[in-house]
Amino acid sequence: MMIGRALVAVSMLLAVTAPAAPAEAAEPAKCLPERGTLTIGESWAQRRFNLPDVWQLTRGAGVTVAVIDSGLNTGHPQLTRAGAYEVTGTGTRDCFGHGTAVAGIIGAAPTKGSPFVGVAPAAKLISIKHTDDRQGDVGRLAQAIVKAVELGADVINVSVEASNVPDLNNAVAYALSKDVVVVAAAGNTTKEDGTPVPSYPAAYPGVLSVGGAGPDGARVDSSNATTPVTVVGPGKEITSTWPFRAYKEGLVGTSFAAPYVAGTVALVRSRYPELTNAEVVRRIALTADGGSGTGTGAGMVNPLLAVSAILPSETVALAPQEPAPLAADAIRPAPPVDSQSISIAVWVALLSLMTAVVVTLGSVAIPLGRRRRWRPGTLENGT
Questions:
Q1: Are 230 and 285 spatial neighbours (Cβ–Cβ below 8 Å)?
Q2: 14-18+33-310, superfamily in CATH?
Q3: DSSP code at position 329
Q4: Which one of 12, 279, 284, 301 has the lowest number of neighbouring Cβ atoms within 10 Å?
Q5: What is the pTM of this model?
Q6: For position 322, what pLDDT does the model report?
């Protein structure tokens, strides 16, 4: 049974159904994503995060981020470095556009003439296609998560809402046990959906669950507040990469909030590689901008603070410890000056010096006198 659905037009979140009987996968008859645009402006999310300042500290190098989604358009000039895999048997191309947009938010490389750049442009992206449409199979979703771990992912982004089934639970637990940070969208809801229910894998313990918010930090109406939320990311009026070397503006949904957080996780893992997955999630939450109501968790993710803040609990791991203060009685006062002892010592030193001078002169003068036939205690030519 499907617990969520993708919203029409630009408000999208991939949904999956319970496992069905295995069937031979076939190449879809059509692969025609919605048309994008070639001309875009700078989005509010780009301005809010002030990423050039963040990139002075880290750009996400050395971190691998897996995007489990609808595939990837690797022909896009900002995504040419990404690797593409699939578990559907339908090829890796993105016939929906969703996966290409999610991947772009995480790690699109800069290109001349475009104001759009991913949060972690130096991170390595790998796309794992688990569906070819707005609907998917939870068994393949679980399979894709395991494959991401096997491919060496440090971060996994899952902009998918699914039901809670053992295969999915086990796949997420496996990823967490391998020190992977799993970032998942909290899900989208509408009035027509009835009473909202938690979305998985976002609702699993240990998963970094992401809701959607606007420029003011308030939750977007469609963001599922029933799912436990760790932080929120930009969830409306989003711009990102799109198939056929294009871009898409006006994207809405937690699908596009999650990759902003996944990109931030990549930055943190690059700058602080010694942190565990749980410590990374904690850092993301503690450095967020503060919640603004139900469904916003710790508030809007803050990439700059996430990579620069010094947290007391991480002092040992991130910086040398300060030396322990000395005890009050560790330094004792010097004794009073003894003038008489100093005077005696000075006279003794002077007498010793004079004696040494006399001995030295004697050792030189006596041998010279002997060569001249002089004897101590006698006068030369005396009677």
A1: yes
A2: Peptidase S8/S53 domain (3.40.50.200)
A3: T
A4: 279
A5: 0.78
A6: 40
Range in 79-88, 216-225, 336-345, 347-356 the model is least confident about: 336-345
186 close to 4: Cβ distance less than 8 angstroms: no
Calpha distance 266→308 (Å, rounded)? 14
Identify the CA nearest to 252 among candidates 280, 212, 289, 207. 212
Distance (Å, whole) CA 330 – CA 310: 31
Locate 205 and state its tokens.
Answer: 């313990």
**Residues annotated catalytic, as ranges:** 69, 98, 255
Measured CA to CA in angstroms, residue 366 lies from 221, 320, 359, 360 at distances of: 113, 68, 11, 10
**Which residue do the tokens 């759009």 mark?**
116
Q: Where are the domains of the chain?
A: 14-18+33-310, 340-376
β strands within 145-230, DSSP E: 155-158, 160-161, 181-185, 208-213
CA 38 to each of CA 76, 78, 114, 246, 294: distance values in angstroms, whole numbers, following the listed order: 12, 13, 9, 5, 37
Nearest Cα to Cα of residue 51 among 89, 132, 130, 108: 108
**Residue that is written with structure tokens 């939870």 in the block:** 138
Q: For the segment 47-91, what is each residue's pLDDT rounded down to a tens digit?
A: 999 999 999 999 999 999 999 999 999 999 999 999 999 999 999
State yes or no: pLDDT of 278 exceeds 90.
Answer: yes
Alpha helices by DSSP H, 157-290? 166-177, 254-271, 277-286
Structure tokens at 190: 């509408």
Highest mean pLDDT out of 72-76, 356-360, 371-375, 376-380: 72-76
| Banded model confidence at residue 2, pLDDT cuts 50, 70, 90 | very low
pLDDT of residue 343: 66
What is the spatial order of strands in the sheet that 14-17 belongs to? 135-137, 14-17, 160-161
Under 8 Å between Cβ of 103 and 128: no
Amino acid at residue number 86: E
Q: Note whether 156 and 126 are within 8 A (CB).
A: no
Pull the structure tokens for residue 366: 């006596």
